[in-house]
Design brief:
By secondary structure, this protein is α/β, with parallel strands linked by helices. It has helices at residues 12-29, 52-57, 64-68, 78-87, 99-106, 120-129, 143-150, 170-184, 199-212, 247-262; strands at residues 35-39, 46-48, 95-97, 112-116, 136-139, 156-161, 188-196, 217-223, 235-241, 267-272. Bound molecules: S-adenosylmethionine.
Length: 275
């Protein structure tokens, strides 16, 4: 396991994922007074954009720093830019929030958050970043297993799956986890992040999901460039299971702006696989 999110925090893929996550959280919170969130791959929670990793990759510079000064930013990004401004005290953007920080900030008194992180040093940083927050727990454990064991059997729940895709079995494990979570709680929603490299991998993942998961699915692609070189990360995709009405428009809006503004010949596509 070599993946370190510090190199990628605040990049185009984080912008799409986190803008859609915040919108989805608000929609699920509107469905009831208590929401349980399980974050299977939490990372360290907060990222230093002035650190060696972020400066070396330049990904935040091409991502969040451009979004924060964009004149044509769609409204769907407003909750994310507000959160980033709050984290940085309104000044220049030196820190970027991960999913654990964004979710924790949005929790209401009866809501709860469980963040799973397998790497001990990342988990230690995560615990520190979330110290003292009410309704928040972390586990240094495999997030796929934890999602199935810890999703409540009733009530409104959200599982966020955001793996590093270092292992060949991530696609299979996502399908198995979503199917098991849905069997456990029919009201459970999920948001999955995936890299886009070639056409075939994402399409066959969607077909497997449709076959195995008994739930409405919504998928959005953010293609940053034509998919001609399968060795590059040419974009990203999000798949939502059990998404509330209205999420599709937000997914399309953030994907389109990101692909067209931050990409090179980029484009966005939305698939509504509701049954
Ligand atoms: C892409 S990062 C997560 C970023 C985070 N979701 C966010 O939006 O801020 C993926 C993280 O998953 C961790 N990881 C890898 N395999 C895991 C597993 N099976 N269970 C839990 N965490 C895992 C990695 O160490 C890495 O920190």
């Amino acid at each position: 396991m070599n993946y370190r999110h510090a190199f990628h925090a605040g990049n185009f893929a984080d912008l799409v994922k986190h803008a859609v996550l915040l919108d989805l959280l608000a929609r699920l919170q509107a469905e009831g007074p208590a929401l349980t969130v399980v974050d299977t791959h939490a990372g360290r929670g907060l990222y230093d954009l002035a650190g060696v990793e972020a400066r070396k990759s330049g990904e935040a510079e091409a991502g969040i720093q451009r979004l924060m000064t964009a004149a044509d930013m769609p409204a769907a990004f407003a909750p994310l830019t507000a959160a980033v401004r709050r984290l940085n005290g309104g000044g220049s953007v030196r820190r970027y929030p991960g999913s654990p920080w964004l979710v924790s900030e949005a929790l209401r008194p009866a809501d709860s958050y469980l963040g799973c992180e397998l790497r001990p040093e990342e988990h230690a940083a995560l615990r520190e970043a979330l110290r003292g927050r009410r309704g928040v727990r972390t586990l240094c454990a495999d997030g796929y297993k934890a999602a199935v064991a810890q999703t409540p059997t009733q009530g409104v729940a959200l599982v966020l799956i955001d793996p590093p895709f270092e292992r060949a079995d991530d696609y299979v494990r996502i399908v198995e986890t979503l199917a098991a979570v849905r069997r456990r709680n029919r009201r459970a929603a999920a948001l999955v992040w995936l890299p886009l490299k070639d056409l075939e991998t994402f399409d066959s993942f969607l077909r497997d999901l449709e076959d195995e998961v008994d739930a409405p699915l919504l998928a959005g692609e953010t293609r940053m460039r034509p998919l001609t070189d399968p060795l590059k990360m040419n974009g990203c995709a999000l798949v939502a299971m059990g998404a509330p009405e209205g999420l599709g428009a937000v997914l399309e809006s953030v994907s389109r702006w990101t692909a067209e503004t931050l990409g090179e010949g980029g484009a966005a596509r939305l698939f509504d696989l509701r049954k």
